[in-house]
Each structure stands twice: as C-alpha cells, then as structure tokens.
Amino acid sequence: MPQHVRWQESLLWALLVLVTAGIMVWAVWSQVNSAAAVQPLSLVSDFTFTERSGRSVTRSDLAGKVWIAAQTFNCCTMSCPQIRAALQQLQSNLRRTDVLLVSFSVDPQDDTPESLRVQADSLEADATRWLFLTGHGNIGQSELDQFFETSFLTRPVRNPDAEPGLRVAHTSRLFLVNRAGHVIGAYSCVEEAVGADGRPGGVFVINEAELQRLTHDADAFDAGPLRALVRLSTIPTINAALNATSAILLMIGYLLIRRRSITAHAACMLAAVAVSTVFLGSYLYYHYYRGHTRFPDVAVKPIYLAILASHVILAIVIVPLVIWTLYHAARGSFERHRRVARWTLPLWLYVSVTGVVVYVFLYHLYPQ
Fold first, then answer.
1. 269-300, pLDDT tens digit by residue?
2. C-beta separation of 39 from 71 below 8 A
3. What is the CATH number of the domain that holds 62?
4. Residues 130, 91: contact at Cβ < 8 Å?
5. What are phi and psi of 18, to 5 degrees?
6. Do 13 and 140 belong to one domain?
7. Which of 31, 132, 163, 332 has its Cβ near the most Cβ atoms within 10 Å?
8. 134 and 23 assigned to the same domain
9. Is residue 228 within a helix (H) or strand (E), and if so which, with residue range?
10. CA distance 220 to 218
11. 175 shares a domain with 97
12. What is the mean pLDDT of residues 76-95?
C-alpha cells in the first residue's frame, strides 16, 4: 500500500480524535456555563488590609481563589467565639482544597496585627490558608463600614458606650466568594439560639447543617464543574505531564524518521497531535474557570515573563503550522512536508518544553 494512503488513513483517525475532542470541549463548555450561571449577591470592593504577619493583602491577592469571609473582633463576647469555631471546622473540612478563610476585623482600632497573630495561634490557624485582616492604622471606621456594606450587604452597628465585648454588632453569617471576587452565597453557620419563650437568648450556636452546606459549596466551586472527573487544582500538573509527553513523542518521531521508519514516525506524530489537542482543551478549561495565575514580584519575574510570552506566541503560531504539515503528508507531498516540518518540529518542541518550564516556575519554584 502506498505510504500516502497510510497517511490518509492516519489522518482520518486524527480527525476522529479531533471530533471526539470537540464533543468533549462542548460538554465542558456546557458544564462551565452552568456553573457560571450562579447569580452573585455582590462584588467585594477593592481593599488593602494588614494581615497578622504584617504584610499587606489586597483584593487582587485573592483573585483566582475561592474564599470564605467572616467578620469578627478579638474581644467579642457575642457571636465571634462560635464564628471562629465554625472557621476552625471549615479549615479541617476543606484541608484537601485550596479554599482560603479570611477573617475581617470589624474593630481595627484595637485589633492590631500582633493581637490577631495571638488569636490565630490560639486557633492553630494555618497561615497559608486562613488570613486575619485588619485596617489598623490605615483605614477609618466609616470607610471600613462602607466596605462591609458594599461588599457583603451588611453594616456593623457600633456602640462605643457598651462593654468592650458588645460594642460592635455585626453579622454572624459566613460568605462564599468565587474566583472573580463575587459573593455567591451567605450562610447562617452561626445563629442566635431561641429560648423556651421563643425569644433570642443572646447565646450563639453553630448550625451544623449550614456549615456542611457551605463546606459542600466551597469544595464544589474550588474543584470546578468537572470535579467528578478531575479537580481543578490538579489540572496544572496534568497539563505539564501532557506537555512533557508531547515533547517526548516529538523527539521519538524525529529519531524514527531519521531511521526511515515512516509508519512509526506517523503514529508518533499523530499521537503528539492528539496529546496536544487534549492539552489545549484542558488549558482553556482551566484558565476559563480559574483565571490568570499571578506570578509573584521577585527578581526572576522578567525571565519568567519572557519565557511565558514566547511560549504563548509560538503556541498560537504552531497550530496552523501543524495543520499545514499534516496536510502535505496526507497528500503525499513529502518534499513540502519535510520543508515545513523543519520549522514545525523545533517550534512545537519549544512550546512543549517551555510549557513544563512555566509550570515549574509557577507551582514549584515560586508558588503563591
């Protein structure tokens, strides 16, 4: 059988793979749109607060992350002890996720970073997953109250003449915030108990059913709409593995064609096409749902950005080049195929290898 006929048969199989991948992308798109259909309650306003460690934290630092917000203050004797207990349970419940817990102080005058650090240590709060924020020294109470009202549709009520533990009345609800900074749920995880006479008794308790509902929803948004198949947090590793596999297949394919093993070469290159197609679908899904991954401001950032820019630009260029290269092979125009492949192969290999390099930079050398 002529070699170009074998190539045509191989190309038909490649087209079948692409059609199947297209159906899978459509299914993913439907799931993503379904997940994105949740109507947000509000948008968290821009802020700059001080964390217990002393570093500044802004809204942009939380971009791309799912987080749970709470309002508390250190000396509170009302709902705060139970709110903190509920957050402790969430820290345990969500330990296998990337969900962040964020405690906003409603009393920045007295809640210094140092006092918040003492509070956090007493709660065994993981500094990488539970933030304690205060506006101490850089934001006034009226500005802070406006932030809470705009962001969470609730405004603290202050009574400076009351006992220290009672001087700020604030919501006991916990708020689920998505990766775009939208509040997508308010949960009554802590409620004031009602006495035998049907009146609130001033004692706050944890609503376990609401706490479990919040745990489920936070985990679902963190994992992404395809959580039954793969968690969103594992996709960067999968993408790096796909890039590495593509690079290996390309090198093997090159060695095979040098040995004139045309059929084996064709199988390797079509396998590389299939792997790269799966990577593209996975990459688009991850970044559509996760958004941009921010690289920290460190000395090597220009080097990282240069690698990333070349990777993205050549990834766009390589798609028509691969199609053009396959087209000539399928037609049996092997001389033209070789001429185009001399450009396609090194560029494709560069894109695959730099994909792994970008992953190592982002998730191993300088993780956020």
1. 999 999 998 998 899 888 887 777 788 888 99
2. no
3. 3.40.30.10
4. yes
5. -65, -40
6. no
7. 132
8. no
9. none
10. 5
11. yes
12. 96
Tell me, what's the pLDDT at 153?
A: 94
One-character DSSP codes across 230-256 = --GGGHHHHHHHHHHHHHHHHHHHHHH
Angle value at C-alpha 230, between 228 and 234, nearest 5 degrees: 150
Cα of first residue to Cα of last residue in the chain, in angstroms, is 55
Q: Please tell me the least confidently modeled range out of 70-79, 127-136, 181-190, 320-329.
A: 320-329
Q: How many domains in the chain?
A: 2
Rounded Cα distance between 185 and 214, Å, is 8
Q: Domain end: 184, 206, 223, which one?
A: 223
Sheet holding 48-51, edge to edge: 42-43, 182-187, 174-177, 67-72, 100-105, 130-134, 48-51, 56-58
Q: What is the pLDDT of residues 161-196, one digit of tens each?
A: 899 889 999 999 999 999 989 999 999 999 988 766
Q: Are residues 184 and 110 in the same domain?
A: yes
* Residue ranges making up the domain that contains 264: 3-35+230-365
How crowded is residue 365: how many other Cβ atoms within 10 Å of its Cβ? 12
The pair of three-digit structure tokens given for residue 31, joined into one six-digit string:
């799931």
66 and 134 in a common domain: yes
**207 with 296, same domain?**
no
Which parts of the chain are beta strand (E)?
42-43, 48-51, 56-58, 67-72, 100-105, 130-134, 157-158, 168-169, 174-177, 182-187, 190-194, 200-206
Q: If you search the block for the tokens 């919040």, which residue do you land on? A: 214
> What is the DSSP pairing of strand 67-72 with strand 100-105?
parallel
Which residue among 178, 206, 223 closes a domain?
223
